[in-house]
Amino acid sequence: MDPRRTPANDRVIAAHLALDPDGRQIVGGQPAQICLPVVNLLRRPDGPRDRQLLLGAEVTIYGAHDGWAFVQAAADRYVGYVPTSSLEQPTDPVTHQVCTAATHAYSAADMKSADLCSLSHSSRLRVSSLGSKFAETNHGYVPLHHLRPISQPDRDPVAVAQLFLGTPYLWGGNSRWGIDCSGLVQAAMLACGVACPGDSNQQERELGDNIPLGNTAVPSDLRRGDLLFWKGHVALMQDPETMIHANAYHMAVALEPVADAVERIMSQGDGPITSHRRVIL
């Protein structure tokens, strides 16, 4: 089993896993949700960042020790460690998510009131009342037009990805403040209700239908929304000639002619396109 999505460590093991506990405590897991704008999901306590979790993200806690919780994210089943202070017990379910690149939560339904926090696209909130311009949420007042009911997903992953243009590249990032190639694809797909894992090699195996590559360096049958994969990289086609991707060359989310990108990536020694996949919504 993929350790990135297996809720087991040297202390605990999830009860639903058909694995030998080998001295570990068998646990059922406890639901919780992220209560801070952005939280790093670490490979081990104080270890490297693997992904990020945004406000309102649902997780299952499988263990807690020395201020760290071992959790599994509901959206992509990725496991890792977050500070226990970044978690809260869910009360009423979240109802809306941020649908713009970013927004602010305010102390009152007034743009001149004190801002309480900045929220990235896909942050999830519980709306308690709707005004003419602001929604009252469990984290403050948010501009009404910056929110979308969770029950109404987007329909165009490319349009979602375009919201992140100019976002700085950040390895393991999942927010408007920093994002990587697979994080961009994941944000676009999840916003459209498409289940999407967190890493590009997982996405290459699991997203959409495989389109044969043919004998050319650049696939001939490229459409808006198609995914192109290289070893360790993924891009989303904006149109048949242009792709959008978070990449270390621009150190940002950028548009790039696909032919130029193929040539540049090959010249860097990172090889040819490995897969062309198509997700049908």
Automatic annotation (TrEMBL):
UniProt keyword Hydrolase, yes or no: yes
Annotated NlpC/P60 domain residues: 151-280
GO BP: any one term: proteolysis
Keywords assigned: Hydrolase, Protease, Thiol protease
GO molecular function: cysteine-type peptidase activity
InterPro entries for the chain: NLP_P60_dom (IPR000064), Papain-like_cys_pep_sf (IPR038765), PG_Endopeptidase_C40 (IPR051794), SH3_16 (IPR041382)
Superkingdom, taxonomy of origin: Bacteria
Record carries keyword Hydrolase: yes
Gene3D superfamilies assigned: endopeptidase domain like (from Nostoc punctiforme)
Family as reported in the entry's similarity comment: Belongs to the peptidase C40 family.
Protein name per UniProt: Cell wall-associated hydrolase (Invasion-associated protein)
Naturally occurring in which organism (per UniProt): Phaeobacter gallaeciensis
